[in-house]
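Sample intake sheet
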Amino acid sequence: MNDLSVQVPLSCPTCGCTEFSETSGDGRSSADERNFICAHCGTVISGDRLIEANSESIEATIQDMGDDIISAFSKDLKKALKSCGWEVK
């Protein structure tokens, strides 16, 4: 199956900017434990809150990806069955 990865740009819930920098820390924490600073308005937001604020965009992307995944899987399955001598329509 082809690479079906996708990146969802997270936007600042205050101004809509999609550029962030990480507040100082050791960098070893998971994203939900870190804080990020919006490059435009300076809003400081936790990773959890940033994901929560962008949940609609994330869910929409997951829904869109579902159709792509099913289509790619179907195509790969047909190809595999044909290579085994099965007749696939």
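Comment: The longest helix spans residues 55-83. The helical segments are 47-53, 55-83.
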